[in-house]
Write a structure and sequence with these properties.
The protein is α+β, with helices and mostly antiparallel strands and 1005 residues long. Helix content is 43%, strand content 18%. The strands form five sheets. The chain has an eight-stranded mixed β-sheet with strand order 1-2-3-4-10-5-7-6, with helices on both faces. Strands 16, 17, 18, 19, 20, 21 and 22 form a seven-stranded mixed β-sheet that branches. Helix 13 packs antiparallel against helix 18 and helix 31 crosses helix 34. The longest helix has 23 residues. Bound molecules: zinc ion. The site of zinc ion has 6 residues, from helix 3 and helix 7.
Length: 1005
Amino acid sequence: MFRRLKHIRAIRPSFTKSIMRNFKSLTVKGVNPQSEEVSQLTMPGVVMAPSYKYKEGEVYHGFQCQRIEDVSEFELVSYTMRHLSTGTEFWYIDRNDANNVFSVHFRTPPINNTGLTHILEHIAMDGSNKFPIRDPFLKMLNRSVGTNQNAMSTTDLTNFICASRNEVDFRNLQRIYLDSAFGPLLTYSNFTQDGWRIEHKDVHDRQSELVIKGVVYNEMIGIFSDNSRILRRDLLKCILPDTAYHYMNGGDPLEIPDLEHSDLVQYYNKYFHPSNGRIFCYGSFDPMKSLEYIDKEYFANKDAIDTAFSHIPPHPRWSEPRQIHVPCRLDILGGSREKQNQISIALLMCDRTDVQGTFEMNVLTELLIRGPNSAFYKGLIEPNFSGGFNKNTGYFLRCRDTYFLVGLQDLKVEDFARFNELYEQTVLKIINEGFEPHHVESVLHNMELAVKHQGPDFGCAVFYTSMSLWNHGGDIVANLRVMDNIAKLRSSLKQNKHYLQQKVEEYFLKNTHKLTITMSADESYEQNFQKATQKVLNQKLKNLDSDDLEAIYQNGLKLKEEQNLIEDVNCLPCLTLQDVQEPLKIPKIWDELIQGVPTQLCKVPTNGITYFYSFLNTTGFSEDDIMLVPLFCDIIQNCGTVKHNFRDFDKLLRSKTSGIDLKVKVVENVRDYKQYRMGMLMSTYALDKNVPDMFALCEELMLNFRIVDTDRLRMLIKNYISKLSVGILVSGHLYAIMGAAALVSDAAKLKSHLLGVDHIDFMKNYIQEYSIEEIRDKLCAIGSRVFHKANMRVAINSSEAQQPIVLEHYQRYLDRLPSLEKMKNKTDLHLLKPSYHQYEMNIALNYCSKAFYAVPYLHEDHPGLRVLAKLLTAKYLWRVVREQNGAYGTNARIGYDGLFTFNSYRDPHSTKTLEVFDGCYDWLKELGDKLDEEMLLEAKLGVLQLVDWPIPPGETGLDYFNVRVSPQDYRKYRARALSVTIDELRVIIDKYFKQEPKHFGKCIL
Ligand SMILES: [Zn+2]
């Protein structure tokens, strides 16, 4: 489970486009498992001119350097070391990247369903020997400018990870994370707060009913209100029944109350030993300082232990396929009751440590399920009897044995048999006919492009894609050599043109470790679950005597008191304002008018890629026309063009570009709140050599898109609607915020209708009301109105050397675009009367939000409000809404749109939470009286984390392009956030919070 930051900031592992790949590690102490031949081939740096910072065989602070390797495609050097007395592996990646990463992880297979490893992950971060206060993790969020601070426990490992671009900060975080891993307090009271406890509903009232509470307990109830999580849980349990994976590492809410504090401490002592851990360091800061600190503080007096106990063997293969059926929740937002069924086939694939094997399975997965040329798309989706692939379709590398799953959602029970038949037919067809060479090439091209394209948090992405492989002792560096993996596959294909077909035969036809899993919505699912939890509680209550009851009452009061205690946080390190004076250096961005098209240009080192963005204005659309724009964005690349049918067009897009992506944009005016714009953002990127093709394909789509086949359109719409309700609960807080904002202004209301929960109902009704021909004509009309140059603004990011070439092709592209009548490019926004809305969802835990209109982004009060939002989150909401009321997450924020919003995530007490939001003035008033410089500094650092968020080269200047916040605006905003004073904050508190706002909305989802 990703821990707390999830709801605050989405983590974007991006360098491999979410394809999980494996890496390489030291499996045998001191022995290089690579053959001589391969290392000569793949380590040009070693053969040509080795000039490394450290030497193989040397010992640095107790760590022996065992392997050094260059990985040229990512311009990095990998050093793998091992601590001599404990045997702990240390992997350092030396790369010229300021965003440094540090992580410690342990192999922690679950031993039952009590959520032991998950609860341990939570409370390890709840105070340690050197930092003996509650939740230093949260407190550090506001004493640091870290770009990642997280802890997670997965099916077989527990990880603590942090990242920062500031070295003082990086060392601070590193000390706290190391102490959480190697010296946590694991107190009983933390166990009851984050794990589980029996407590009075109202702790002060001993007459109130007794219930089970606990952060993880609630978290797990919330997680399993998402049907795709139910499927994944039951799948793992049944496809790997003989290993640790059949236990639910997150915890089954019905079994979490079986966990004892002593079990957890015992597990910690055994599994969190240095010998069972691995340490990762990435970036440009000196790793020797890390080694010295680790050796001196934690490892010096420790000996190695045998860690065979945590080893997870490959699962024995079945001789016969198996089948299961499971119930799930009825989804109120989903389709009709009789179509709320899913069927999936899951197959156990190669071992996680087989680097080339897992790479080739990734390629096969793309060939089988991605895009209209893929085999299962043709075989399973095009017959159009479902709502498309289910969310779990894909290739999974989180366990010792990897597995592949393909499944359909929204189909009738009587169509299960048809799925099975079509599945068999498709597999046989591939084995007989093979894959089209063009298609294979387009997939390999996309993988090469993904290597070059870099996300903002490369170091974290490297870790996340390596951790599982490393955890099982796999070769983490070989896995980084994506170009070698591609070359090996090409060579296998050259020697044997049936190579991939034979893989399909082996993995899909002859594979008897195959599980068919069907799932159907059950109206009484929630009710049954509640009955079962009540039974667990009753069982516990049955054995309690009056002394126990008194202890429960007293413990409840004691915990509440502890939660309310204002702790002295001075044991925690903190940055000073001097440490963060320097704003980010932003490359020069400038605008040119090219053939009448406003064009933003930026020269950045893009690693051989050109990025191309077009904002296509739709502001002049009527409300009726605008409502189909999201559907248009979703399907237009999949319809084909006059020159190419949809399959050929997709193949061309994938063999020359990253694909063309279109997204709906509602853009608030950052200077004047009364205006906004609407449009579509079209984005693509390509290798520099493919720039002419990239423009030609954009031109082809814009001028010659072709929506004619109504059967296909019907299928695309059906799949589009099925996708809408999936995943809403995972980001429920964002939908709740959108729902609350929709009650504040007409612009936000439109946004919710286009992108929020309201869109689902709208689309369901729309297809009832209009014929497919009418919808087709409306979609065509959208295309002809937006795709022309009088309606466009463009941004291009490329390297300095490439820019003249790009501009030449860009000019030619513009030459060929028509210029129709210019549409209006801003529209007035109206504020609405305060109101409240609740979406009926049939879920156990809710998402709440309150939104009110404050000021536009560039108003001088905005940075101060943002500082207040940080204070509210850290000092008020977190304590009351999460710790006391049991919601998994909560925060306050103010965005570009000028809306100040509060939200809660997986919340058992929604009405109470809305009251907490309403009561913030009293708290702020009190805060105003006791606010000191230290609290203010913490909140400012929290704001800096957001404004200084690292931006990858491909996205540099995109904020300016989208919302018109220029680098000068950024610097001004940042300086204002850093200089805001306590007195100014007091004024802002009275100005924006004292009176009930004139325009606000509240929403529960
Ligand atoms: Zn958790």
